[in-house]
Batch of 4 targets.
Target 1
Amino acid sequence: MGKVSGQHQAQAAAPARARDWRKAMSNHVAYGLLVYTALQIFVTVKALSEGTSGLLPYLALIVLVAGIIPALRWFESRWIRLDDAAAADEAYAQAFRRDTIGLWLLAIGLPFALTAIFKALLRVL
């Protein structure tokens, strides 16, 4: 009962797998784009369709989704350039956290900010 099986000993002796900052940021970018797009569909397009008719809300959606891709790729490109050793370096944890917070603030906040801007413009026009 006090003995540990050979498989468990090997697992216990193996070093913990380091986090790959490149892959983690790519995952955040992919999920951020999905969240941003869903919010654009449900928030901004609804607001636009209340003030206009036709294809304008859908054209605006395409433009706004296409416009966010370079910003999200900028976050990713900073991390993709890391070599294998740096990609597993825990010294990047704080910078990674800062970038993921910025990415999620942009992905979640921008649709609401754009909705407010569009509603204001529709009131003026």
Target 2
Amino acid sequence: MNNRIKIPLSKTKTALLLIVPIFLLISGFLAILQPESFISPSFNDLGKIKLLGIAGGVVGLLLLILIIRKWLTRKTGFTIDKSGITDISNASYTGLVEWNDITKVEAKKVGPIKLIILHVNNPEKYINKAKKTSIRQMRKNLHFYGSPILIVSSRLKIKYDDLAALITNEFEKSKSATTQNKTH
């Protein structure tokens, strides 16, 4: 494979994520400015309501900043080339997953979530090069799915079925190219 396939991040899907931090921000400000409107029979401490409002506002603001930064990024969300697959659309990305490390590509639906699982021959290699904040999640992925590397198309500008077919097709091409190189 000589060509490089680039799939951008979906601006529309990322923009939809803005609903949560905006809700947190508005709720937080209302809890700070009008804590009495949040009083209920089980929770009537105005000081705690204001404190929760501040916490909600801060979390909402941080999420808003992170999502807007992701939305404004010009980086390609997903790349397939002769070396392998690079997915930066995911919070727990590990950089390049090399073709020669991938043993199997599996498309799987878990409830409403559709995943593409890249099974690799050395999972610890990818867990060790992940960001510290992602290591725990990657270990859970390894335990539940048999691989630390999961791809979700929800943040990419491509449909799940199309992405699964593309990855499977390119994986098969890379394996046949590797087999041909070994026989020559």
Target 3
Amino acid sequence: MYNLAGEYECKVDAKGRLRLPSGLLKQLGTEHARFTINRGFENHLMMYPQDVWEKKTNEINSLNIYVKKNRQAVRYFYRGATNVSCDSADRILIPKMLAKYAGLSKDVILFAYNEQIEIWDRKEYEQMLADEEPDQFSDLAEEVFGRKSDDGE
């Protein structure tokens, strides 16, 4: 179980390699240097530690593939999914097809939360925040969390 958190500015080198920040590696632990990267819901990538990926695939594999929407979800979920490992310099190689999908340039943002890491092109990330971030986070928090009562109802 992970409780990842943080935004990290990173660079992708000319060969498509991304060095994972030491702060993120500390949260993951040194034994977790294997990941799976796939497409995110928006134009970004999702990166999962290998054990989290296995949980996600168990969930998606439980869908009834005789239902068309389920087949479509399974295909999209697995499309481009690639296993990657850190090299001796704590770098991962981002597959070209996935980098193209996410429009990754040299400057990227890793946004880590819960058990996954989003990989965004820096400009796309900033644009997403400008478009989607609420003017008043307190209003959003009240709408989303305000329905919870102190007694668990």
Target 4
Amino acid sequence: MPGKLENLKVIGDRVLIYPDSGQDRTSSGLYLPPTVTEQENVQSGYVVAVGPGTPLADTENENDVWQHLDSGKTRYIPLEVEIGDYALYLKKFAVDIKYQDEKYIIVPMSGILVVERDDEQLDLSKIIK
């Protein structure tokens, strides 16, 4: 794995993706046609980090809805994606970043179309070169 991602914290409902190296088919058979990749409307990659989710307002104290954000008791609606998922996402929602000389993509949860999840634990060191 290139560098450690433990110092990189993903915020809110965002997902950090390591872009795929151009394969058009996953090991289980998920296929991304060349016409889609050529137009770059949809891209794919592996989820390497996820944010905590969408923060929920504190309904107990309606006078100061956002007071709980400072108290450390923030509750979140968790994300559906997990680390190790293979994700197809809309490129128009993606933001390219470079962290420790590696390219990553940040995508909001709403920009992800579908994920492929293997029930076995995935070793991310095999994915990221």
